Amino acid sequence: MDLFQHSINVILKNQHPEGAYIASPSFETYHFCWLRDGSFIAYAMDQVGQYASAAAFYRWVGRVITRYAAKVDVLEGMLERGAKPDHTAILNTRFTLEGYEEPRSDDGEWGNFQVDGYGSWLWGLAEHVKLTGDQALRLELVEPIKASVRYLQLVWQLPNYDCWEEHPEYLHPYSLASIYGGLKAVAAWSDLPQLAECAKLAGELAGEVKRFLSDFAIHDGRFIKHLHPAQKGQPPKPVLKSGVDASLLGLALPYAAFDLNDPAISATIQAIEKDLHLPNGGVYRYKEDVYYGGGEWILLTAWLGWYYVLTGKKAQAREMLKWIESTAAENGDLAEQISAHQLAPEHFTPWVEKWGQVASPLLWSHAMTIILHKAIED
Ligand code: BGC
After folding, report:
1. How far is the CA of 246 from the centre of ligand 1 (A)?
2. How many whole angstroms from 186 Cα to the centroid of ligand 1?
3. 185 and 82, same structural domain?
């Protein structure tokens, strides 16, 4: 089984004709397209020369944002009035494959206020344009780019759900780093008259976000998972009870808010290695994870491997890839997580009863594996 080729095929086969990538075709709860997953999937497609697939995804995002851009005006009005943003004012984290908001369920929202994806797609788009030189796409997407920057300007300091769709009461350094990555990408587009003003704003905001991260997101020499938002004139404070989270890798890779060798990044990686990397195994999200019993996540294992390649530790990166290969199903499919060494086994069955077996294939797992594979090869 050629896992690399299979991964490409799984992604292409599961891309909707309109450009959306379904998170997982066999897991009903994931029959949506997330901007977060999608941006990494499109990035992976770019790495293997599947430019049309990536471009179709970015066009799909552009149409979705254009469709809901009027919500940014609503949001602005609400914030001016001092009101708490609700579903009429936020841009969702996931959409149906046709590009619409999912029907709202009675039990309120399933964590749709997650701001990281609006940074990720801008970052991914910029990578796509760099690689392909497709300036026309940038021009075509001017309006959704502008709407995204305006949206990020309004929301970046608001508490929202993290990338695991939890803890809406906090701010999250991972999400802030995605925003930084997206804004920084737009800041480089001042050459386009239609974007000149937006690029300037994006550059200023990126600087603010980075300062915020440097000032408030480091504790005991390493990055932390959550922050209490600023309140009543008090600066944001670290949430000390949360341990390290593997998504903090994103601060350096790919969003480059900090250098790969920045001391606080190195200390964060060491904490991830110590607390979250099972020897000879995969990487957990965070220690208290109970989702499907809290297994090792393929995409995070590939992400750490990717970091290893870029910091000159290819042998370790290969180990990560080898472990991922060992988890593939007979047909080559990669799951979201591997359940062999769970952190909270008693929580596994209740999730299976609620939503069915662990999602597999998960397109984001395949995407990160492609990225790791290419990084090792190059
Ligand atoms: C994860 C998200 C992801 C979604 C779809 C959730 O369980 O926490 O990060 O975007 O699944 O893959």
Report:
1. 14
2. 26
3. yes
